[in-house]
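Researcher: I'd like a candidate sequence for this fold, 326 residues long. If you have to choose between options at a position, lean toward the conservative one.
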């Protein structure tokens, strides 16, 4: 079975570790930037006996280097939003079918068949630029939902409000996915009492509004939409997988993705569950870039393999797809 096939067939922690070691060896041999980083740390596959020992590439490298395994031409290049004057991250994806399989399989695992949903997307800031991996994913989910009213809503908020109320009242299963500031704008103008709708925020005010702590944001959205929980999606340009929260900011990963917490004072030291530190992510879907990423987010894991985002390092950029301070 190829590595690509093995990634999406993981059913246990032992299977995850086995595939992770194989992916590490593959990327050590074929990713020049990652190999140089490992060499600087004097880390060789023969030195690795636990996944915690694998070197995690700082996410900033996606801004300064082309991170690819093998030298195939990219089929798509995803880019982060960034702010004016800042260098953006670029993810050179040589096999976009891996990304498609990752988000389709993960969504099905957490939420079931996409064809059962009407997908309503409120993502104005992402639609206004090119290269968004989030738009790529949501556009595909909209098409696969096969519902005539699924779609992006940019300048037709009145139409969206009427449609949402009507479909929800008819008992339609709805996924409303939106960037935080747009959802807040929406509930400031309209109020809802939704019974059949999942409201999912993708994080980020993107400079449009004052940042809110997660609990305050979710309280406002819960009241505005008349729902008991706000769901969240945790993803970023540099990853081809997403984690999902069905409430309270507690996230779960698909089986080919894992979150570890590093000590903020010693980045090579991994912390135990419930300890706060920097978030390291193993995303095996990043087969053709780098699967071992040290992010600029702060968080903590729990013993049941869930995790929570608690903020960002002070010096990090405000990313479009990250969650708010908790």
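Model: Candidate sequence:
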């Amino acid at each position: 079975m190829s590595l690509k096939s093995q990634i999406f067939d993981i059913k246990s922690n032992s299977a995850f570790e086995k595939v992770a070691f194989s992916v590490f060896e593959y990327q050590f041999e074929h990713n020049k930037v990652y190999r140089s980083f490992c060499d600087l740390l004097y880390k060789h596959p023969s030195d690795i006996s636990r996944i915690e020992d694998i070197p995690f590439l700082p996410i900033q490298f996606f801004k300064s280097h082309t991170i690819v395994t093998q030298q195939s031409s990219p089929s798509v290049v995803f880019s982060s939003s960034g702010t004016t004057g800042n260098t953006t991250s670029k993810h050179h994806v040589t096999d976009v079918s891996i990304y498609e399989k990752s988000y389709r399989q993960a969504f099905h695992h957490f939420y079931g068949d996409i064809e059962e949903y009407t997908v309503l997307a409120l993502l104005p800031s992402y639609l206004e630029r090119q290269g968004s991996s989030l738009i790529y994913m949501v556009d595909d989910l909209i098409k696969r939902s096969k519902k005539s009213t699924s779609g992006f809503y940019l300048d037709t908020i009145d139409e969206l409000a009427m449609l949402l109320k009507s479909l929800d009242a008819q008992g339609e299963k709805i996924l409303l996915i939106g960037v935080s500031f747009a959802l807040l704008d929406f509930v400031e103008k309209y109020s809802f009492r939704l019974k059949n709708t999942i409201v999912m925020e993708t994080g980020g005010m993107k400079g449009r509004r004052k940042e809110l702590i997660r609990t305050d944001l979710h309280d406002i959205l819960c009241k505005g939409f008349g729902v008991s929980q706000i769901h969240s999606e945790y993803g970023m340009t540099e990853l081809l997988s997403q984690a999902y929260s069905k409430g309270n900011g507690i996230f779960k990963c698909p089986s080919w993705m894992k979150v570890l917490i590093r000590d903020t004072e010693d980045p090579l030291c991994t912390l135990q569950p419930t300890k706060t530190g920097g978030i390291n992510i193993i995303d095996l879907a990043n087969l053709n870039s780098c699967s071992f990423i040290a992010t600029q987010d702060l968080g903590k894991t729990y013993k049941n393999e869930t995790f929570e985002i608690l903020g960002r390092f002070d010096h990090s950029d405000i990313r479009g797809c990250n969650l708010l301070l908790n």
